[in-house]
Amino acid sequence: MDILKLIRKRRTIRKYKNKRIPKKILNKIIESAKWAPSPHNCQPWEFIIIKNTLIKKSFISLLYRGLNSFLTPVKIILNRSIRIIENAETIILVYNNNNFSKKINKLGEPYFSSSIISEIEGISAAIENMHLAAHSYGIGMAWLTMPLLLKKNINKFINTKNELMAVLTFGYPAEKGKCLRRKHLSEIIKYIKYIWKNVM
Ligand SMILES: Cc1cc2nc3c(=O)[nH]c(=O)nc-3n(C[C@H](O)[C@H](O)[C@H](O)COP(=O)(O)O)c2cc1C
User: Residue 113 sits in a domain of what CATH number?
Assistant: First the structure.
């Protein structure tokens, strides 16, 4: 398929069928993440997969318990994300191991801040690869960051000190997903046509 067509047709899918995703397909989706670019090829990503029904149940009840500490408007939005996770066949927690920025830390600023951003950009590229790969295999995915509000609880559950970057939910689509308007090219492009005098 033409790459632009694939990119344009991908949607966030928040409702899933009760149908198992074969491990072979799941592995291919994760394989796509592995080939994403990352700063100095540091590959800062780690993926924790939750597929087991009992573990999923226990994870979901942890998230619902965590809701109580938030004010109502946040509670409502966060509750929506938890419902998406609850409905998913597979949940993948994406972690940043920060190994690259930990090394760069010795060099101080501005290198450290830049390494932190670079790691995040690499991980974002990996997640987008997964989004596109999932779509190409007929699997729906949602990329969620609202649940990061519960990262302390989630990290305790996983027993990790790594930085939670996103919660990804997967399943065979039970909805088409809404195609939201994208800005016109003219709204996002700016060609530089002259050089500011004060920088010369
Ligand atoms: C970094 C990031 C965080 C997101 N977090 C959430 C989220 O917490 N809950 C949710 O329902 N959707 C979330 N989304 C999905 C966006 O709402 C969605 O991508 C956007 O509305 C465009 O729709 P589309 O993906 O179908 O084209 C997130 C997407 C990105 C890239």
Answer: 3.40.109.10
Ligand 1 in reach of 125 Cβ (< 6 A):
no
Could you identify the atom of ligand 1 that is nearest to the CA of residue 127? 31
| Domain count for the chain | 1
- In this structure, what token pair is assigned to residue 21? 């995703």
The answer to whether the CB of 143 is under 6 A from ligand 1 is yes
For residue 166, what are the domain limits? 3-199
**CA of 77: how far to CAs of 56, 84, 106, 125, 145, in Å?**
20, 11, 39, 26, 11
End-to-end CA distance of the chain: 47
- 65-108 confidence digits (pLDDT tens): 999 999 999 999 999 999 999 999 999 999 999 999 999 999 99
- Strand ranges across the sheet with 140-144: 45-50, 90-96, 163-171, 140-144
Whether the per-residue pLDDT at 200 is higher than 70: the answer is no
C-beta neighbour count of 137 within 10 angstroms: 16
143 CA distance to ligand 1 middle (Å):
6
Task: Check: CB of residue 73 under 8 Å from CB of residue 156.
Answer: no
Is residue 195 within 6 Å of ligand 1 at its C-beta?
no
